[in-house]
Design a protein that fits this description.
161 residues; single chain; mainly alpha; NLR-like; 8 helices
């Protein structure tokens, strides 16, 4: 990362990729504040240099939303993930596999916020779209269907005491 900063500049796309990798390493280590600081830097620079709807910017938004989610900062995660989903839908289309990943990420944010009905509704939409786009046997479709089934069962039984 430091070499790329020196050779290419702090705002070069390859440098931003390296910074993103370091942030990902910090995430894996549970170093959330350090990850967040780098992810904010990558997202802001990507937005300025590449545009708000560039695939690299969209990825950086999802990464920052994930860090917020892992910190339990649900409101911030929701705002960022909803914006990322909206931009993905506009840039790539609602049926694009990356848009569907973004949709499922928002589902998990809503679930974490306790918005179970909203999460189930969006998860159903995601599941339907994944079946149409990827097919019933695709691992992402299977995972979504499995999660949907488990959450429905959980909702029917109520919280475990």
């Amino acid at each position: 990362m430091e070499t790329r900063k020196t050779k290419l500049g702090a705002d070069h796309p390859s440098t931003l990729t390296s910074i993103g990798y370091l942030a990902s390493t910090y995430q894996g280590q549970g170093r959330w504040e350090e990850a967040k600081k780098l992810e904010v830097q990558v997202m802001e620079t990507s937005t300025t240099k590449l545009g708000a709807d560039h695939p690299s910017t969209l990825t950086s938004m999802a990464n920052l939303a994930s860090t917020y989610w892992n910190q339990g900062r649900w409101d911030e995660a929701e705002v960022l993930q909803a914006k990322q989903l909206e931009l993905c839908s506009m840039k790539l289309g609602q049926r694009h596999p990356d848009t569907l990943i973004s949709m499922k990420n928002l589902v998990f944010v809503w679930k974490g916020m306790g918005r179970h009905e909203d999460a189930l509704g969006l998860l159903q939409s995601c599941s339907d779209l994944r079946q149409q786009v990827l097919g019933a046997s695709h691992p992402y479709t299977a995972s979504t269907l499995s999660t949907l089934k488990a959450w429905r069962k959980e909702n029917e039984q109520g919280p475990v005491q």
